Amino acid sequence: MTYDLFIGDRTFSSWSLRGWLMLKAFDLPHRAHLVGLYSGTMAGDLADLAPARLVPILKTPEDDVTQDTLAMAETLHERHPDAGLWPTDPSARVLARWLVAEMHSGFTALRTDCPMDLGNSWVGYQPGDAVLRDLERLEQLWQTARAKFGQSGPWLFGDYTVADAFFAPVAGRIAGYGLPVSNAAQAYVAIQLADPLFRQWRAMGATVRYAPYPYIQPLESRPWPGPVPIQASAVEAGPSVNADCPYSGDPVTHFMEAGGKIYGFCNAFCRDKTVNDPDAWPAFMAIYQS
Known about the structure:
Blueprint: E1 3-7, H1 14-24, E2 30-34, H2 42-45, E3 57-59, E4 65-67, H3 69-79, H4 90-105, H5 108-113, E5 121-123, H6 129-149, H7 162-177, H8 183-194, H9 196-205, E6 220-222, E7 232-235, E8 254-258, E9 261-265, H10 268-276, H11 282-288
Parallel strand pairs: 1-2
Antiparallel strand pairs: 1-3, 3-4, 5-6, 7-8, 8-9
């Protein structure tokens, strides 16, 4: 049973990030298909999925199609009730659905003024009053969830749920624009930035180069405030420590250097996503640490 997920550019598509996390975090088999959100090919890429027209789009193994992350969340929960998408406690589930729905329909100023850009972190961004009100509301919701149901783990409801997937792009916005939040909220943002799946998404997004770059700010940039990855770089040739790609198992054709050794991959994408954040990929780290 494998789903097909159609996503936009990883660096900028916050809704696509939510959809991917809902599948990836709960171990639901899927194939991701990148559509041309910024290259102008999106309408053609999605033509066979009409009337769906916005990413992310989920196609079930039975070829049913749904658009919109709220619809996806309920569809996946209905089909996989034991996967843990929503909290098991009924009261916690009520609150989690509330938070997800408000994130889905609200926070307009934050989303408009601070479009998601996981490729930059800006110095000196000055949020307007409407954005500050959105941040205040955001903190109120996070504090409520953590106080009532979040004591058993680091996430809003203890364990990772759909609510955390929905707020992952907001964590990226807070990090990227240096938005002013409390220490408690900043701690939750740090948890999101350190999540291996969030790091994988960023690393894959960074394999794409843009000219012109969307959402550029007239500000100085700083290093991304998440965990600092192992230093790595692409190289032209081996031999490599490994004969087979850590992801596909296919023979290696592309190479990178890290820690004074050469590692191989089956294509440029596998190599480049690893160069961008080696620590994010358990299959690679198993080789690196062996």
